[in-house]
Fold this sequence. Notes:
alpha/beta; Glycosyltransferase; Pectate Lyase C-like; 11-stranded parallel sheet; 8-stranded parallel sheet; 20% strand; pectinesterase activity; lyase; aspartyl esterase
Amino acid sequence: MNTIKKILGVLFILITIHTSAQVHDKSWRSITENKEGEWFASDEAKAIAENVLLYQRNIGGWPKNIQMQMPLSSAEKQQLIALKSDLHDITTDNGATYQEMVFLSKMYRQVPDERYKKAFLLGLDYILEAQYDNGGWPQFYPLKKGYYTHITYNDDSMVNILDVLKEIKDKTDYFSIKPSNETIQKVQLAFDKGIDCILKTQYKQNGVLTVWCAQHDENTLLPAKARAYELPSLSGQESVNIVLLLMSIENPSKEIVNAVDHAVIWLEKTKITGYREDRFPIENSTKKEKVLVKDPNADPMWARFMNLEDNTPFFCDRDGIKKASYAEIGQERRVGYAWYNDRAKKVLKEYPSWKKKTETLTEKVIQKTNSAPKDEFNIVVDKNGSGDFTSIQEAINASKAFPSERITIFIKNGTYYEKVKIPSWNPQISLIGESREKTIITYDDYFNKINLGRNSTFYTYTVLVEGNDCIVKNLTIQNSSGPVGQAVALNVNANRVIISNCSLLGNQDTLYISGEGAKNYFKDCYIEGTTDFIFGEATALFENCIIHNKSNSYITAASTPKDTEFGYVFKNCTLTADEGINEVYLGRPWRIYAKTVYINCKMGKHIKPEGWDNWSKSDAEKTAFYAEYNCSGEGFQPEKRVSWSHQLKKSEAKKYTSKNILGEDLNLSSQVWNQKKQ
């Protein structure tokens, strides 16, 4: 029995050594591509996971070309710990960050170690942070000087990122780690922006769409140069997985279908037939020489670099001079770089079935675009294609001008990345979301991005309402540009508009209420921001709203016109703030006749005792009207308010009724206002 145990023990050791050697002999990429299973619960996998955690930087990403499976000495581990806060050489190039996230997900499914989950989510945050406003990603983030700042399709860097985001936004089981709903919304937006960037960078040759370069200028979006031998060109390699990604999108837009169609035409046009690439050993070298030989039976292949003007293949040595064949360049570059590939075979194989599948959907979209909805007064928007339209703006554009009765546009759950405008000739429109939490309209314009001069703020809106008597209900409107200055989520430049049960999300200048003489109503809303996030000249009543500060700053910046009786009135609202926020003013005057009143509101401790600021306008202390009545909470300190503000008497507060504030317009039917009670 002891002999058998010894034999079994030796066999176990030999098997373990053999398995370990097999894994360590593999590349890191191939290990991350291992099929999910018990191996990811092994001690060996756990040891590799420790290395992955060590190599991750605090910002969330990883450096490239690291063989994570190789054992580390104590000194190497200490060195990696010291590098945690270093911001250099963190990238998504050569599979970095992507591969580590895939590996951690496979580990977590077998071993639910919270450190794996935390590292994965930190990597996801890194990807989201690294994205350009135009939707692309650089090769390195934080940015590294040189060609590394270009939008990088090279070695499938951006496609890998979008593959990660697609799995997460689609809520598949590919990743075992599930982000929060808030993060998934950010992922959806980032994915949509990425696809938009792909569509915008597809190169036009003599006005006709073709494919993509390995990298594109981050500002002009045109093909750009990387290393000396990587000149601006059309890529027969990087373009392939871009096309496959576009083909993987369910219910593709007509723009995506058009992009794929033209890319396939180009790939058919540029395939090289009748040749194959042969390789033979080079003396005293591990590399093999390459040579093209004629072979009428060879599968088609594509050159990695083709001229932008006429699609002819070219090759470069490190001197950057184009050559017509790789026989004309030095051996080092000839054998050390992939100049030909056959990857596009997969596109050409899958395209016919994809095209057949999308033709029916495309026809339906065309029919819907060219025809009126089934019920012109009740329109359905569904980004997945089951409604009358797939975009909100298309539904508005198809709506009757100056309709005889209210037009209701019902918006199904989904994240709608679009800039929405309800024109003045479209009054009496209702935008009704399926749910406040899951019907999201988002866009990411901001002052410097718009760059139209000093008034750029007013063009940054996600949603602009110019049609009188409009109702917006049960949805979220977001400016997702982040803390980058003035960036409007909702601009209401109309009269008698109701915003009910909505979330208005942004930072500086979230809600702009414009139009002299306009009177609008906000009920049961959540409104967040940083500085002056409720501003403008219109009169507005806010009832039962949550007003949330994300920074120490100012809630309101009213610009109430002179002789206007009411400005902003907040009734029964709750004022909240992020943790650590403790110096917030109730308002400051954009114009000196600003009027803002809080009645029966609960104020958190983040409200400063003085309450109000004059914005360095001493005249405003005489002309502005800032007041409170019967408020509560730690932030309500009436005895410490600035001397030029007011605490209303009960008799004075009585005039702040809905009827007095919003008025009675004879052209306004009671039905419109009654919808606020639904």
